[in-house]
Amino acid sequence: QSRFGTLYQQVGSLFALFMVGLAVGSWQTQRRSGVATSKAVAAVLMIAGCFALAWLGFSEGVAELPDFLAWVIYGATIALTGGLVGAAFPLTVRSLRHGGMISERAAGLAYAFDLLGGALGALFIGAFLLPLQGTPTVLVFLALLCATTGAAVWRENFRLKPYAPKGRL
C-alpha cells in the first residue's frame, strides 16, 4: 500500500490472497494430523520470523521492479504469510488438546488469544510502531517476537508431559 497508494482494488486483492493462504495453510495442517503439534507450532513461528527477516532483506529490491512483477511478489508474500498463520491456528488447538484440554475449550482459548493478539497488534504496530519507526523496525520486531515465542513453545515441549485426566486414556 505504501508503494501504490490507497488503491482499494489492490488492497482487497492482497486481503483475498492472504485468505487463500489461510485456507491452504489450515487445510494442509489438517491433512497432516500426525504431526507433533507443539514442535510444529514452534517451527511455524520460527519460519515466520525468518520470513520477516528475509522480507526485510529483499523488500527494497522489489520496490524497484516493474509494477506487475512487484504485485506478483507482494501477492505471493501475502499468500505465504497467510499460509503460516493458517497452519498455526489448528496446530495450536491440536497442541492444547494434546495437553489434555477439551476441544471446545482449546478452540475457544486459541480464538480468544488470536483476537487479542490481532487487536493489540493492530493498535501497537499499526498505530504506533509502524508510523513512528518504519517497516524495517517492525519486521525486526516481528522476527524477534516470532523467534522468542517459537523458542518458548519449543522449550515447553520438552518440559511438559501430555495430560491425561483420571479415567481417560
N to C succession of SSEs: HHHHH
Strand content: under 5%
Shape: globular
Spatial extent as radius of gyration: 18 Å
Main pleated sheet: none
Number of helical stretches of at least 4 residues = 5
Q: What kind of oligomer do you see?
A: single chain
The low-confidence parts are none
Helix percentage range = over 70%
Quickly give the structural class: mainly alpha
In short:
It contains five helices and no strands.
Architecture overview:
- There is one protein chain.
- This protein has 169 residues and is mainly α.
- The chain has five helices and no strands.
- It has helices at residues 8-31, 37-63, 67-98, 103-133, 135-159.
- The longest helix is centred in the middle third of the chain and has 32 residues, at 67-98.
- It starts with 7 loop residues before the first helix and ends in a 10-residue tail after the last helix.
- The mean pLDDT is 85.
Give the key terms.
169 residues; 5 helices; globular
Set down the secondary structure blueprint.
Layout: H1 8-31, H2 37-63, H3 67-98, H4 103-133, H5 135-159
Helix pairs in contact: 1-3, 2-3, 2-5, 3-4, 4-5
